[in-house]
Every structure is written in C-alpha cells, then in structure tokens.
Amino acid sequence: MTEPSRLTAGSFAGASATARSASSRGLWSSRWVFFLAATGSAVGLGNIWKFPYITGANGGGAFVLVYIACILTIGIPLLMAEVMIGRRGRQNPAGAMGRLAREAGASPHWRKVGWLGAFTGFLILGFYLVVAGWALAYVPTALSGAFSGVDGQASGALFEGLLADPGRLALYGLAVLAATLLIVGLGVRDGLERALRLLMPGLFVLLLGLVGYAAVAGDFAAALRFLFVPDFSQLSAKGVLLALGHAFFTLSLGCGAMMAYGSYLPEGTSIARTSLLVALADTVVALLAGLAIFPLVFANGLEPGAGPGLIFVTLPIAFGQMPLGQLVGGLFFVMLVLAAVTSTISLSEPGIAWLTERFGIRRGRAVLLTGSLLALLGTACLLSFNHWAEYQLFGRTVFDTMDYLTANWLMPLGGLGTVLFTGWVLRRELVHEAVGIGRPGWFSLWWNLLRYGTPVAIVLVFLNLIGLV
Ligand code: TRP
Predict the structure, then answer these.
(1) In this structure, are residues 375 and 386 in contact, taking their beta carbons and an 8 Å threshold?
(2) pLDDT at residue 5 tops 50
C-alpha cells in the first residue's frame, strides 16, 4: 500500500500504474469534491449547446417534459447504479464489473460492458472536442468586438466562416484536447478541484445573468411558452428517442464515466442523495441555458430549429448589444470551454484508467496514445463541416454519425448492460448495502425501476430504431 494516510482525489491521476488494491488508488478528498466532479462531468456542452438546439428542433415543451421524465425514471436510477458499481468494485469500469461479476459467480464477460463504455466515450470525444473548439475559437472573437451590432444574418455568417476553416477548427479543437490530456495526465488534485470550485458557481451566476438579460431584451413570454407549454403534436417518436438519448448524454451515463468517478468515492457517502443533487444541478443548468437563448431567438426572428449552431449564432447577437458585451461574451465562452473540459476529462478517464490498470501502461503513455487517436478522430469530425461535407454514411457526416451512434445506440446499450448487471446479476442484499438507501420503500422503488422499467424503456428504444415499434 502506498501512503494510506494521504488519500486524496488527486492521487488517482498519479496512482502508480500497477496499483490494484482499492486503498492505493486514492479517494476523493470529500463528498463535496465528488459532487463537484460528477456535476462537472454532467454539466457541459450537453446542457448549454445540445439541449437548447435539440429542444428547438423538436418543438419545445413536449420534448422538455419527456426529457425530464427520462431523467427521473431512467437517468437517476442508472446514475445511482453506476456510482454504486464503481464504489463497490474500486477499479476502472471494466475491472469493477469483472470483479463484481466474479464475486457474484457470474460470467466475467460482463466486463465487456466496461470496454464498450470506454470505447463509446472515445467516440463521443471525437465530436465533443470539435464543439468545445468552437467555444474556444469564440473567446478571441468575442473579445475582439466582432459581435458588436451583429444581427442574425451577420452572426450566422461569422459562424459559417468558422466552420469553413479547418485550420482554425483544428487549432482550437487540439488546444482543448491538449488541456484535457494535461489535466488527466498530470494529476487532477489541485487543478480539477480548484477549477471546479470556481467554475461551477461562476457558470451558474453568469447563466443567471444572461437569463436576466434575455428576459429584458428578448421575448421572454414566447420562450416560456415554447419551453414549458407542451404541444404533443410537435413531438415525434424520433423526438422521444432523442430525449432519452440526451438524458444519458447529459448525465454522463452509459460510458462508465460515473463508475470511474464512483470508484474514488469514500464509503459512507449517500449515493442516492448525491446523485439526486447532481441530476438537479444538471437539469437546472440546461433549463437556464434554454431560458437564456430562446428569448433572443424569438426576439431576433431566428429559427429555433436551426440546429447545432443555435447558441453560436444566437448569443453573439446579445453580446453585441449589451453593455460590456465584449467582456461578458468572452467570459461566457471561457466558462463554456471550462465546463466542456470538466466533461472531456470524465469521458477519457474510463479508457485511460483501464489501459493503466489492465495493462500496466504508464499513465503518461496511456494519455499520449489516447490523445493521438483522438486527434485523428477529431480531425475527421471537423472536416465534416468543410472538405468532407459530402462524404456521408447513411446520409450523415462523420460528425453526425458519431453523435447518432453514441446517443442512440452505444450509450443506451451500455446503460442496458449496467442495469441488467445490477438488477439481475448482483444479489439484492449486496446492492442494497452497497447503494446505501436506508428507507426500504425507496430502495424497492429504485430496485424495481432498475430491474423492469429501465430495461424495458431501453429495449423499446432499440425496437423503435430498427423500425419495429
Ligand atoms: N454530460 C456531459 C455534457 O452534458 C458530456 C459527458 C461527459 C458525457 N462525460 C460523459 C456523456 C460520459 C456521456 C458519457 O456535456
């Protein structure tokens, strides 16, 4: 054992490559740090970039309602299961599931769910880094005053200009990748912890401010109607699927990320309470993002269903009009990048922890290997917007394919594996003890959701995708 008396969050990043026992891997220094890290993972581009644009493209209120229902009935139970498996298994996701399967006398093949997760995280990173690069590219753009006085059309042209420039996209995307690898490689203790303490409250305050601005300068009533008055005629089966996929995405589920974080969680912390808080914070941030953006969309005659560029076209109009907009805009995009980086860290952690713990590869090497492959995948994704725009698989560019495959297939598949494993392979008493839900009624509710509700919902998704339902 190495220094059992100094177990802190940071030691996980620097943990020796061959360290296998639970105690030498290190733990988060407190429950609060786990909450911050998990919230940092959950809150990211999914909330501020993706949620508004898919809500806009799927008709608003009804979509939001289904999304919230998915968070409550599938997301939160699965989040708890992931954290529980991680804490109980005290290893990377594949290792943890393998260990628990062995203990339960089940097939070791369950660890493949962990592999699938690490692979899914890798594919997500491919397109996620590109979008994070958009945000970073917009920091100097905002500070330079390029947004001042732009209307919808001029703002759209600025964004199109960025997409058409592969060199700029690569520069900024790689910068985000480098920042991620640096943090993951060097040790997370001070960096992540300190950044999160400032970042999370900062992002929250800034978003609130933007909502305030949008309420005054935009069409707030139209936005409220759009977001909260459901019109089910606007919602398609595809929209329901998207809402479910997004519930996975926004809570960082189905890839083992929360398992990896759970594996550093001290005993005695309530998994249920922490998970609820993480989900609440995540949902609040997404709704705030919607409330900041849609008033401006409606006031400026923009199209809510405009697609992935929505926030990058809408918000600059506001920054270009408000007092101190250059500064506020620059700050906003800095925060967005930081929020994205706390998510990319968690996306790469399962794969990197697996490489180091399974093969004894040194952490630095695992990081470089993963990073090189990611640079290639990311490049393929960013070329989707310019040179490779015509190359399509099944009518989708590489970028869209990564998004579609992960959100619709791979994350739900990883989630299905996880709930079946928890609900049907592990013993009820073990799970009850490990998850630490005291009240029997609540435990039964969760247990039954996991055993029946969640698997059925996910299977329905798959049946729908192949056109059977
Ligand atoms: N939840 C993050 C977001 O909303 C994205 C993310 C981070 C993620 N880690 C993940 C998605 C793991 C799936 C799995 O931006």
Answers:
(1) no
(2) no
